[in-house]
Write a structure and sequence with these properties.
By secondary structure, the chain is an alpha/beta fold. It has 2 domains: about 90 residues, Helicase, Ruva Protein, domain 3, CATH 1.10.8; about 160 residues, Rossmann fold, CATH 3.40.50. Strands 4-5-8-3-9 form a 5-stranded parallel β-sheet. The longest helix has 22 residues. The chain is elongated.
């Protein structure tokens, strides 16, 4: 603030305007009601495809059977996994999420099943894996379609026997964890191409849930936008209210990146908005011209 006090009047005026715009955007978004938004299980949606998802969750949420969640990137697969855990019989224990695509193949077995001291260079002590950390709770394997073939056999053995063998260890350890998996891949096609084990697929796909892409959820984009902008305001991120032109542009766009792309676009547009109102011209050109 001392540096700002010593700056020239034009700089101080610009800073004051930026502060006023930020305040206006947060006040506008904070005033948006979100309690009336339709949805369940921590997810927003009124479109028939989302109502179908909620109906499936109603029937299986108390089950402990393995679940495979399918859908494009950004459709909310992890939200479904969290709903299954938080509303299910294992909610008092941990939900352990593992992104199989984010961990190098050479480390994934150790991360998943643990290792003993001396198993490899750098293994200075015994370490539990994610599977054992989920004992009594839920193990969520995201991007399961990226799992290397050699590790698929070990995961299958874990699903069949409920036992894990740490890397470098001789003794198996019993683990009681519910397994939920998710992928944006066509696993049936990958089994036909011998890239994914068919027996593992059937072990994981006892129950399947298909998450719809945003372009197949008519009417849900404005609802999600309202929810996201109010959440941004609470978290101190750029926010604001959408004018009718911006809403129309958002609804016309196909959203190949789904909800994740919508979140990013709203953050960007709010940063460019004025007086707490997001207009069509504040949107990215590809979306504004949709």
């Amino acid at each position: 603030m001392d540096r700002l006090d010593r700056s020239d009047p034009a700089t101080r005026l610009q800073a004051a305007r930026m502060l006023r715009a930020w305040t206006d955007s947060h006040l506008a978004a904070a005033a948006l009601p979100v309690d009336d938004l339709p949805g369940r299980y921590g997810m927003i949606g009124a479109a028939p495809p989302m109502q179908a998802v909620f109906a499936v969750l109603d029937r299986i949420v108390r089950s402990e059977a393995p679940v495979l969640i399918l859908g494009e990137s950004g459709t909310g697969k992890e939200l479904v996994a969290r709903a299954l855990h938080e509303h299910g019989p294992r909610r008092k224990k941990s939900l352990v999420a593992v992104n199989c695509a984010a961990i190098p193949a050479s480390l994934l077995e150790s991360e998943l099943f643990g290792h003993v001291k001396g198993a490899f260079t750098g293994a200075h002590r015994d370490r539990k894996g994610y599977a054992e950390a989920a004992d009594g709770g839920t193990l969520f394997l995201d991007e399961i379609g990226e799992m290397p073939a050699e590790l698929q056999a070990k995961l299958l053995r874990f699903l069949q026997d409920g036992e894990v063998r740490p890397v470098g260890g001789n003794l198996a350890r019993h683990v009681n964890a519910r397994v939920i998996a998710a992928t944006n891949r066509d696993l049936q096609q990958r089994t036909r191409e011998h890239l994914f084990r068919e027996d593992l697929y059937y072990r994981l796909a006892v129950i399947t849930i298909q998450m719809p892409p945003l372009r197949e959820r008519p009417g849900d984009v404005p609802l999600l936008a309202r929810f996201i902008l109010a959440k941004h305001a609470r978290e101190g991120l750029p926010s604001g209210q959408l004018d009718p032109g911006a809403v129309a542009a958002l609804e016309a766009y196909a959203w190949p990146g789904n909800i994740r792309e919508l979140q990013n676009e709203l953050t960007r547009a709010a940063a460019f908005s004025r007086n707490g109102v997001i207009r069509r011209e504040d949107l990215s050109p590809a979306i504004a011209g949709a």
